Amino acid sequence: MRELDVVGPQLAVLLAAGAVLAWDALAPPRRAALPWIALAGLAGAAAWTTAWAVRGDFGEAFEGTFSIDAFSVFFQYVFAGVTAIVVIASIDWVEREGRRQSEYYALVLTAAAGLMFLAGARDLITIFLALELSSIPQYALAGWGKDRRSGEAGVKYLLLGAIASALLLYGMALLYGFSGSTLLTDIAAAVAERGADNRSLLAAASVLLIAGFGFKMAVVPFQMWVPDVYQGAPTPVAAFLSVGSKAAAFAVVMRLFFEGLGEEFLSDDWAMIFAVVAAVSMTLGNVLALVQRDIKRMLGYSSIAQAGNFMIGLAAVAVAGERFVAGASGVLLFVAAYAFTNLGAFIAVIAISRRTGSDEIASYAGLWRRAPLLALALAFCLVSLAGIPPTAGFWAKLYVFNAGVRADLVWLVIVGVLNSVVSAYYYLAVVRRMFLGEAEDERRLPVAPTVALALGVATLGVLVFGIVPMPLVAAAREAAAVFAGG
Amino acid sequence: MDVPGVSEAVLWAIILCPLAAFTAIALYLRKLPKLAGWLSIAAITASFALALVALVDTLGADGRAATHTHDWFHAGPLQLSLGVRLDGLTAVMLVVVTSVALLVQVYSQGYMERDPGYGRYYAWMSLFITAMLGLVLADNLLMLFVFWELVGLSSYLLIGFWFHKPSAAAAAKKAFIVTRIGDLGLLAAMLLIWTRGGTLAIDEIHELVLTGALSGTTLTLFGLGLFAGAVGKSAQFPLHVWLPDAMEGPTPVSALIHAATMVAAGVYLMARFFPVLEASPDARETVAWIGAATVAVGAALALVQTDLKRVLAYSTISQLGYMMLALGVFGYAVAVFHLFTHAFFKALLFLGSGSVNHATNTFDMRRMGGLRTVMPLTFWTFLIGTLSLAGVFPLAGFWSKDEILLEAWHQNRALYAIAAVAAFATALYMFRAVFMTFFGTYKGGEPVDPSDEDSHFHGDPAHPHESGRVMTWPLLALAAGAVAAGWWAWGREFQHFVEGAVPADALHHAPAFSYGIAIASSLIAVAGIAAAWAIYQRRLVDSAEIRRTAYPLALLLERKFFLDDLYERAFAAGLFQRGWNRLVAAFDAFAVDGAVNGAGWLGMQSGRVLRHAQTGQVQLYGAALAAGAVVAAIIVLATGS
Q1: B119 or A250: which carries more pLDDT confidence?
Q2: Cβ neighbours of residue B526 under 8 Å, at least 6 residues apart?
Q3: Residue numbers of chain B with a pLDDT score lower than 70
Q4: Which of A207, A402, A418 sits opposite B76 (nearest CB)?
Q5: Which domain holds residue A356?
Q6: Given an 8 Å threshold on Cβ–Cβ distance, is B621 in contact with A160?
Q7: B515–chain A Cβ distance below 8 A for any pair
Q8: How far off is chain A from B625, nearest CA to CA, in Å?
Q9: CA distance A324 to A394
Q10: Mind listing the pLDDT tens digit for each residue in A19-73?
Q11: Helices A325-356 and A372-386: crossing angle, nearest 10°?
Q12: Which ipTM did the prediction report?
């Protein structure tokens, strides 16, 4: 029974997915209840996670392939929260689309369950299965919209995702071939024992794994799908992709590299790759975001640049006395802050384009007069993305940069700071347009109450953690402590 | 050794009340101006009441400090904290800020009536009050700096309140930029103490200073950096040029921000870090002499102004100079005491000038006169404020100014001489203003221009009348302060109270009250009044004659020592345009453009080129994905073992 208890949160979410489908089959006229069933499932998952967190009786299950610890608890909260916000923000859009509503929610929930499995996976097979469980529904969701662009996005995402999975499997196969086991603990032991003689093999495996997960993390050079898919996919789905699957990929990479491949002679190699990829992602993402006219594409490129910021935390392994922990807690803090921030930005876009019918940045001019609260919320999220106080994004950036400096990656932090300046330019350009631009159409923009709720929760998170950052920092540090002594 | 026991929640509530008002007005009440005004007044009343609670409590603890510090953020060695501090100095500032703010807000109900920006006005004022209260409650330099900047921002917004007037917009910009120059110094001081001392907490900085843990150079640089910030904010020479222009804002704004509170923030800052001045003679001397220069420049320029508000503005500069001078001659408690009394009589004078403006539609004293009879309340309260400022016994200004002169006498006779001459000038220019405004015959004010849609003047300038009660009552309340605020110093009560706020080792024994100095300063004040009476009332000497005789001096004063010209020509247009600017332009074109604009340009260009790679072709994307992995692998294998 302990096994069931360990995966209880995931089961609650899957159960809700089934319930959503069943409800649609049994009581089709009462479709309005569907999202609330989904939310109930997520609430159940969060409650179950809380029960674990309170008991603190952490450990392994399924013969070491899956574990529940502070780290997975942290991510289960993130995924439950992100999914809940996405579900709420989707209600208005899904109702208007009108078709196959139950499938939409069921797919979102299934993907969420996959993400939550990833948080605790400590075995190559489990990781791969959980990754596919979360990916396949996301391919379908990307192609959910009625127009051709959405279909194109879905197919592109699927095809490229398949290539990425292939690279990933190849890397996993190399690791298995080397160690004879799929368990991360066994792999770590094998690396410690005879890794030094097989450094090239392990380096090749590292590169393949980084490529496979780099696709999900959306870092250069594995990012080319991002703008096309974000622009084509329905906006709530784009929001989900930009936060959920990115966060999950970072979670798995931390498990895999810090636990499985954490030997010092190896971490020198892969930390260098992470550092370079971070620098290139930040720079390329920001430079390309500068020239975008479509806000969803801009947010797409910005999410590439943000992934580069996260990755500074992966590269910052060599902090004296806090090996892995300083960097990992930076990544976790960034994941949480970014989840609120980016969801908020995407939801604001949902609310605006739903009414104006345009994703052009130019159409945001004078938004302040048409929808003051909406403009204010979006402004806070953009300011947070730019890393300006008093927002959650500021502290995340400060923390990660601080970890970078302590790990002697001063050059990388300088690249990051310069990139922050560039990014502030395009984020604040939107803010300036909203507040100082002249609107062509002065009419008020009505906002659906559910969208307003989702946006309110996200923006509140950005601000509350901007003003009182310590609880989040403490949670991130506690979760990252699982890597202590690595 | 008890410390103030007042609950920490009370202190935070003092800041949060006006903040709540600001938020509510900004988000919901812009369209309901009446409600905005009342909400703002209610919030500041609550803050005032809580400030009184804090004051009483601190009195019971002899002004010693209680700090409530919380860990705000830390990452490894990087630690930031957030906290409030209550001691004698803070308690005095809290009461000054909240009481003057309350009266000004009430007065504004009348003064800003029918202004289309009424709601906005109360929002910005509430924001300013929040920031100012945060500034005086902050227990560390970082928080102080954040509120310091917020104060600057709200001052900018309020000076430019009538932003459609080009002069107001320009004045706002000027104030913002000039004070920012000083803020660079403050920022540098913060970084210095952070790198050398590893802390930003006020307590710990005091500790470092007193134990001698910092080198003399560090101390001096730190003190001068702080002082640079104070020079900008408190309009000290040579950065005083923004304050007279700031009079473009609504008059209640001038009363609260540019007379009583914000401009005193620089003095507060130096008082807060008084142990630094104590430990660094160089920094202290600089403060004293800059203060004295400001005293002289402000008083001289006030003599030639024809605009009533500008007389008051230069007078404020001069009085702030007195406070700095006092700090520079070890007169910590005296400086704070003068800040305290000055807040009341200067706010009173500004509000009085606003009341006059309400009747005459002008601030030009040449178009006033004889208002004594039609505006008796305004006249009498203005006269009280003037007497207090001139330092006439037994009004508030007498006590505080006399003590500054006393301290200066004991430290440095040259400084005393400057301060004494300026005291004569103070009485002269203030009574010049009184005679021109309230005596003689009425010159008709400024006729209302019916084509000026921005003007919200109502009434008839040809027939001036007393202002309504909502405006005169605050005048009466402030007049009471201008009379009685000085009596707190009786038996050195006030000094003892604020001295509790600094470590005892940092204090000097203050010289005893001297009848000689007191009688001398009274005679100086009376002489100034008599001179003004002779020139501007009885016209025994023609002021135009004086101007002709001393033409070069008059020109120097009328052109404000050519400082504005210097700044504009040298920094905004002239010198820069030529030699230096060539260099800068070249640097700008190659280095800065290359880095900033160039980064933008390069970004845009490379963005344009790179986006061509984004063909939308899935084959290409897949190939890039695989190629990326291959390239990474080659690099790793090549560079690795």
Answers
A1: A250
A2: B392, B427
A3: 1, 450-459, 491, 543, 562, 565-615, 640-641
A4: A402
A5: 264-486
A6: yes
A7: no
A8: 5
A9: 22
A10: 999 998 888 778 889 999 999 999 999 999 999 999 888 888 888 899 899 999 9
A11: 150
A12: 0.77
Q: Identify whether A12 is part of a domain.
A: no
Residue A120 has pLDDT above 70, yes or no: yes
Nearest to A233 by CA among A301, A157, A150: A150
Q: Are strands B78-86 and B66-75 parallel, antiparallel or unpaired?
A: antiparallel
**Residue bearing the bigger pLDDT, A437 or A71:** A71
pLDDT for residue B576? 45
Is pTM beyond 0.90? Reply is no
Distance CA A76, CA A117 (A): 9
Q: What residues of B are in contact with residue A220 (Cβ under 8 Å)?
A: 628
CA distance A60 to chain B (A): 30
Does any CB of chain B come closer than 8 Å to the CB of residue A291?
Answer: yes
Number of domain units in chain A: 1
B603–A211 CB contact, under 8 Å: no
- Under 8 Å between Cβ of A87 and A97: no
CA distance A452 to chain B (A): 16
CA–CA gap between residue B222 and residue B199 (Å, rounded)? 13
Q: Is residue A192 part of a domain?
A: no
SS (H, E, C) chain A: CHHHHHCHHHHHHHHHHHHHHHHHHHCHHHHHHHHHHHHHHHHHHHHHHHHHHHHCCCEEECCCCEEECHHHHHHHHHHHHHHHHHHHHHHHHHHHHCCCHHHHHHHHHHHHHHHHHHHHECEHHHHHHHHHHHHHHHHHHHCCCCCHHHHHHHHHHHHHHHHHHHHHHHHHHHHHHHHCCCEHHHHHHHHHHHHHHHHHHHHHHHHHHHHHHHHHHCCCCCCCHHHHHHHHCCHHHHHHHHHHHHHHHHHHHHHHHHHHCCCHHHHHHHHHHHHHHHHHHHHHHHHHHHCCCEHHHHHHHHHHHHHHHHHHHHHCCCCCCCCCHHHHHHHHHHHHHHHHHHHHHHHHHHHHHHHHCCCEHHHHCCHHHHCHHHHHHHHHHHHHHHCCCCCHHHHHHHHHHHHHHHCCCHHHHHHHHHHHHHHHHHHHHHHHHHHHCCCCCCCCCCCCHHHHHHHHHHHHHHHHHHHCCHHHHHHHHHHHHHHCCC
The rounded distance, in Å, linking the Cα atoms of B44 and B98 is: 7
Q: Which residues in B lie closer than 8 A to residue A277 (C-beta atoms)?
A: 632
Residue-level pLDDT at B584: 52
**Is A63 a domain residue?**
no
Separation in Å, CA B359 to CA B9, B246, B354, B393, B481: 44, 22, 9, 31, 25
Q: How far is A118 from chain B (nearest CA, A)?
A: 23
User: Measured between beta carbons, which residues in chain B are less than 8 angstroms from residue A148?
Assistant: none
Q: Say whether residue B28 is in contact with chain A using an 8 A CB cutoff.
A: no
Question: In this structure, what are the phi and psi dihedrals at residue B68, rounded to the nearest 5 degrees?
Answer: -125, 100
Any CB–CB contact under 8 A between B552 and chain A?
no
The residue in chain B having the minimum alpha-carbon distance to the alpha carbon of residue A389 is B146
User: Nearest-CA residue of chain A relative to B632?
Assistant: A207
Residues in chain A: 486
Which residues make Cβ contacts (< 8 Å) with residue A116, sequence separation at least 6? A9, A10, A13, A45, A75, A76, A79, A80
B73 inside 8 A of chain A by CB: yes
In a domain, A382, yes or no: yes
Rounded to whole angstroms, the Cα distance separating B139 from B57 reads 18
The alpha carbon of residue A242 is apart from the nearest alpha carbon of chain B, in Å, by 19
In a 3-state reduction of DSSP, which class is residue B412? coil
Q: Rounded CA gap, A339 and B204, in Å?
A: 38
- Per-residue DSSP letters for B154-197? HHHHHHTTTTTSHHHHHHHHHHHHHHHHHHHHHHHHHHHHHHHH
